[in-house]
């Protein structure tokens, strides 16, 4: 079947918006039923809370990581989402256990990923239970993250070492700024707020191309001077690595929510236009792992990027008047695809992860066409946002 690519302006004129429907077109109950069954099995197969579910190894066995791994907070976060949807206290108990399992990372100053590691579990836990024991780990972790901000560069440093980069910053960093905003509000520490804004502003200035696509890595010199722009997990320095574009969209949508600064909304809408209108976005709206991968269409899809896109677009649809329907309809199509057998695993298969077909680091020959824990997390988040868009 020949793929029909609708121009962005035409998409705006589509009137059959799901927003006008009386009920969701996605069976959310069924999607969460599958998730609950998979994660019930996951809990049973993971009694050791020092080994966090991550992915599947090339030999098909489970790939588990320790709490210092950047993805350690996603499993607990997903358990909180299951509690949020079902109200079943068994998920609350499990979520609390796996949340506390990452608490020691609040002292970790060697990573920029503390938002993923701490805010996903502790932040959701506090939001849903108001358990004050969850506050201190977030505040301590935010202070640890802030140590990676150097005012000489104006950004939070990503990796301590990366090739010949003196001060590497990756687009993924945008996802950890929400963590700082929450801590700033809770502690009334304006410095944390200022760090988040300064990082976002300098990233906006240097990470993006004129078409709103993002580089993966920017290497800086003092004075916020750019030394090099490159990729690490994408197909090429000049390509648009799919998950990087997803981090960017989600990050600047969140920046608008937290600051109400219109420049962040404009940035998010520019990124959304790049994604939605891209000629290489497949018909089912789940992107290839890189929009410019060399062997399209014979390249792997990335369900994780699709899940992050869907969640971000649903939020963005609540802020945009002109493009509300486009964002919502695209996210809905992504969720329909992810909830289908093409991407959702059968019960007890896929090492009990919900989604199949994600890509972690293809150039590094790591996590290719496999389940990955953060794909599940953002998929569940997107389903919850979709449900709430219908007032439920």
Automatic annotation (TrEMBL):
Does Hydrolase appear among the keywords? yes
Keyword annotations from UniProtKB, A to Z: Hydrolase, Signal
Q: Which residues form a coiled coil?
A: none
* Listed SUPFAM superfamilies: Six-hairpin glycosidases (SSF48208)
Write out the GO biological process terms: polysaccharide catabolic process
Q: Which domain of life is it from?
A: Bacteria
Q: Which residues constitute the catalytic centre?
A: 113 (nucleophile), 172 (proton donor)
Q: Which GO terms describe its molecular function?
A: chondroitin hydrolase activity
Pfam families named among the record's database cross-references: Glyco_hydro_88
Q: Which residues does substrate bind?
A: 113, 172, 231, 243, 247
* UniProt signal peptide: 1-20
Q: Could you say which protein family the record assigns here?
A: Belongs to the glycosyl hydrolase 88 family.
Question: What's the protein here called?
Answer: Glycosyl Hydrolase Family 88
Which species? Answer: Pedobacter insulae
């Amino acid at each position: 079947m020949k793929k029909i690519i609708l121009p962005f302006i035409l998409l705006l004129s589509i009137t059959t918006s799901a927003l006008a429907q009386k009920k969701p077109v996605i069976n959310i109950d069924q999607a969460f039923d599958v998730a609950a069954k998979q994660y019930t099995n996951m809990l049973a197969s993971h009694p050791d809370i020092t080994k966090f579910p991550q992915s599947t190894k090339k030999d098909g066995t489970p790939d588990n990581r320790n709490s210092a791994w950047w993805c350690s907070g996603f499993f607990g976060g997903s358990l909180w989402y299951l509690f949020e949807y079902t109200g079943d206290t068994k998920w609350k108990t499990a979520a609390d256990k796996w949340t506390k399992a990452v608490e020691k990372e609040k002292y970790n100053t060697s990573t920029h990923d503390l938002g993923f590691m701490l805010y996903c579990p502790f932040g959701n836990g506090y939001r849903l239970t108001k358990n004050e024991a969850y506050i201190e780990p977030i505040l301590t972790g935010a202070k640890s993250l802030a140590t990676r901000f150097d005012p000489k560069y104006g950004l939070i440093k990503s990796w301590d070492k990366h090739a010949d980069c003196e001060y590497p910053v990756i687009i993924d960093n945008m996802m950890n700024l929400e963590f700082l905003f929450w801590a700033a509000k809770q502690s009334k520490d304006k410095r944390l707020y200022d760090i988040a804004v300064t990082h976002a502003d300098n990233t906006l200035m240097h990470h993006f191309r004129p078409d709103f696509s993002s580089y993966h890595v920017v290497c800086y010199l003092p004075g916020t001077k750019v030394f090099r722009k490159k990729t690490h997990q994408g197909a090429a320095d000049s390509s648009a690595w799919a998950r990087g574009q997803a981090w960017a969209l989600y990050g600047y949508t969140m920046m608008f929510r937290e600051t109400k600064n219109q420049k962040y909304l404009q940035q998010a809408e520019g990124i959304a236009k790049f994604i939605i209108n891209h000629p290489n976005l497949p018909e089912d709206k789940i992107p290839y792992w890189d929009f410019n991968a060399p062997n399209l269409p014979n390249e792997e899809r990335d369900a994780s990027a699709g899940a992050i896109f869907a969640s971000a677009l649903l939020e963005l649809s609540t802020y945009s008047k002109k493009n509300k329907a486009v964002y919502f309809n695209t996210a809905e199509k992504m969720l329909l695809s992810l909830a289908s057998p093409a991407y959702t695993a059968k019960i007890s298969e896929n090492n009990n992860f919900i989604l199949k077909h994600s890509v972690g680091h293809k150039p590094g020959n790591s996590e290719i066409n496999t389940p990955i824990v953060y794909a599940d997390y953002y998929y569940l988040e997107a389903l919850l946002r979709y449900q709430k868009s219908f007032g439920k």
